Request: fold
Amino acid sequence: MSDFVLEVRDLETNYYTNDGVVQAVRKVSLEIERGHRVGVVGESGSGKSALALSILGLIEPPGRVVGGSVLLNGRDISSFSDRQLQQVRGKEVSLVFQDPMTALDPVKTIGAQIVEAIQRHQRVGGAAAGRAAVSLLRDVEVPHAERRLDDYPHQYSGGMRQRVMIAIALANEPDLVVADEPTTALDVTTQAQVLDVLERLVTERNTAVMLITHNLGIVAEFCDRVFVMYAGRVVERADADVLFARPAHPYSEALLRSVPRPDRLQRGPLPTIQGFPPSLANLPPGCPFEPRCPVGHGVELCATQVPPPVFLGAADDPVVAECHFAEDRWRGALPIEAESA
Amino acid sequence: MIRAAAGKLSGALMAIFGASVFAFIFMRVFPGNPARLIVGPLASNEAIVQQEKTMGLDKPLWVQYWRYIKGIFTGDWGFAYSAGETVKHEIVARLPASAELGLYAFLFAFVLAVILALAATYRHRPWVDGTIRGVSFLGLGTPPFWFGLIVLLLFSQVWGIFPGPDGRLGPNTTPPPTYTHFYTIDAVAAGQWGTAWDALRHLMLPAITLGLAPFAFLVRLLRANLLDVSRENFIVVVRSKGLGRWPAFSHHALPNAFLPTLTASGLLLAQLISGSVLVEKVFNWPGIGALIVDSILRQDFAVVQTFVLLSAVAYVAVNFAVDVLYGVIDPRVRIPVAR
Reply:
């Protein structure tokens, strides 16, 4: 039996807005093995960030988690009170937030914000916590760590701030780090450096990572397993190499096709997915991808029936896709492109 | 750092100088002759000329201005003809009353605004927020003199909880020895607890009346800023470290949301301590408001000039304090980005 650090079962989160109920997370299930790295990919508005906040119990009104369970280290934390969750957050699971420019308190020093995370869960004095903060800053490769401890966020660049975020997330050696678009706001060179730092540190500490991103390149590089989200659902789950070689869901395939790759550059515009994701306040009756789907668009079955999960692949290497045509595609489909080594 | 302080200081001096010139010119370009007003409508031309001479009005403007500035520093602030006393005597007698009332009004407005803005935004309870917004709306829309009359009627006449409009103290209370001219502080300093209590009771209703509109304004401002900041990403991050709702709110949301309120509070404080006409009238408060209005109507130069200058000094001083506090709270003001 596998040792799961996180098991999410049928998690449902709604936002109650004036325009109706927005179903941001619709019965999502996923699991992360200890020390593994999982990617959650999807377009903006597919419910990825809401999923992250739901796992940490940080959904604020008008949003609410309305169903499902979150098992962290085997304990169902979705039934925890906020006070109980405070003992878990930062200690067993922590968050690296998107947009480092706004994720740090502008009026507190970097040192104070790291120390705050340390002292929340460890009984250490100010001096010891300060030393721990310096060593964390060194770990994330912030130059002149001692000197920069008393600086404020506005004196740090975006990449340095994101390193600080990683330092804060790892301050109490959690079992799981939820990283929500950790590199999206950074330029490409900085992205690579920050990812390298994250990768090295989680490998050293055997920390599991749930990496939320829309960047498939990062997923290919970083993740063992991928969950593709569309309209609040996980529409396909597969090991990363399997997904890239043989996407079972048409949405996954469309996502892969819209990534520019130097090894298959063609003339003409980059393929895109036509149209927009459906409004999560007003979902179509059938498959949510049907209006945009190259396979199922106009097919009555797709337009009227929500596709059930289809289990594919080997038992030890399962692929699950929510598509009426998944089985046909899986049997007939050729890999769209062999993964370049 | 020193350069910034020097810049601030010179700016402050410029503002005070500007205010002094403005007050000086303004009083003199208006039609009407103060000498005529003093000697009366039946006085002869010789009497008027004589009066102008004693007041120095026959001298060129710059000479008059020079005398005014020199007087400020030597303590000779001129003569208040409308009151029949020196300006210094009038202001020393009346300004502390206004300033004490203004200070308590400010304290009421500020403390209540902070508490209610926190209550309105913490935990997003719609009915609490709605009630507080309603109160603030009423506070902004209610004319203070009307509100003053109503609270006097209810709390003094009907229920007798607070004293009526008999000024700073009841008729049977003797004023405390004067150190600061603030009765509550002086009475406490002299150990006269009864007097302090009486002074405080007399301050309550006028302070609430005067502070109502500033309170309503501050509540709206701080509530809006708190709502904005509590939606910021860094609040989610702070919570993800395992901090409780209240520590995240009080340690992180409040300091960030507080900055605009600080600026507004400074301006309101300066405005409140320089007196108000209508509220002082309603509560029969021996403040400076009525004196200033009277002096403007009678073109009593000396009083208005001195008052405008003192107000300018108060505004500049309060704003300087605000600037300093701002730097303490917000490092982005204190420390430049370049590194």
User: Anything to note?
Assistant: The longest strand of chain A covers residues 4-17. Residues 188-205 of chain A form the longest helix (18 residues).
